[in-house]
Amino acid sequence: MESPLGKPQLWLNPVERVRFMWTLPEFSNLGNLESLQVENSFAKWTVTMYPKGVEEEDNRYISLYLCLDSSSNETKLKAEFEFRLINADKKTERAMKFHRPKTFAMGQRRGFMRFYTRFELYNSSPELLPNDVLTIAGQIIIHLEPESNILNPAKPLVDSKMVQYFTYLFEIQKFTDITFLIGDRELKAHRPILAFQSKVFGAMFESDMLEKNTNLVLINDIEYDVFKAMLNFLYTNEAPNSDMVKELLMPADKYDLIRLKYKCQVDIYENMTIEDSAEVLFLADLHNCHILKDRVLDFIAINAYTVVTTEGWRSLETAQPRLFAEAYEEISTRIVV
């Protein structure tokens, strides 16, 4: 069953993350505006809080905003961000976020005019103002423009003529110089082609490991059909079969195959349903797919009432208690804006 609300868009361009923790003592005595300076490698930001609201009619609320002060190339930036209120138990009490990238021009601010009511702030349990101290946690995710094909996994690394040549080499299985043994079956390949597309393969072939001396690599953790599909993608640039993308995510992560990992994530996300969303969350966590994981958490939060009734969610609670606890904490506080 598909989500009735659809899914947040999946963005997989390179990103830079900035996290901060902001402690404000004597909150009840603060003036009309407080600010915190935050920096990443090429930009400066200001987080601004209005303890009594940004406008007179909003004086029952606290307001929170993010502003882009400057960037190294003075261009607009795309960023997601979230703010969280941390209670006395060091847990998130309230969270609001933009889960799609927003464009920031220089001096432009975005945020939440009515982030939290002052009444709730003073009457929360566990308390949000222990000893009159307010703690705000936050994260900024800046989306980077791809600088090359290697950083832009949507584009192939080689042109179409080279792909045709690589496909021919893969099909005829000649001039190979490395053999992969999976169980009792073999797959032959060409070192330069693999090393060109994977730093892991390149390091393997250049080191003094057994593989360099014997031209034989034993594969014990990947099924034959999955490994063959991985090689087929590296040679032919053909999109993997949708029935196999979940299995391909593991070798894509293991061998640092950026483009294959990208395509697998997009396919998995686009075909994700309520029933398998917990499984996708597990795969994203297991194989270091941080943005995919964040989007799946958004999807689960939107559809929480139905997701928690699925077998996958119950299995996650039993088999992956750490991830379940993390997911439960996230979706219990996550508000999709």
From TrEMBL:
Family affiliation: Belongs to the Tdpoz family.
Pfam families: BACK_BPM_SPOP, BTB, MATH_2
Protein name: BTB domain-containing protein
Compartment(s): Nucleus
InterPro entries for this protein: BACK_BPM_SPOP, BTB/POZ_dom, MATH/TRAF_dom, SKP1/BTB/POZ_sf, TRAF-like
Lineage summary: Eukaryota, Metazoa, Ecdysozoa, Arthropoda, Hexapoda
Keyword tags: Nucleus, Ubl conjugation pathway
Keyword Nucleus: yes
Any one GO CC term of the record: nucleus
Record-annotated MATH domain positions: 17-140
Domain BTB: 176-243
Nucleus found in the keyword field: yes
Pathway entry: Protein modification; protein ubiquitination
GO biological process annotation, one example: protein catabolic process
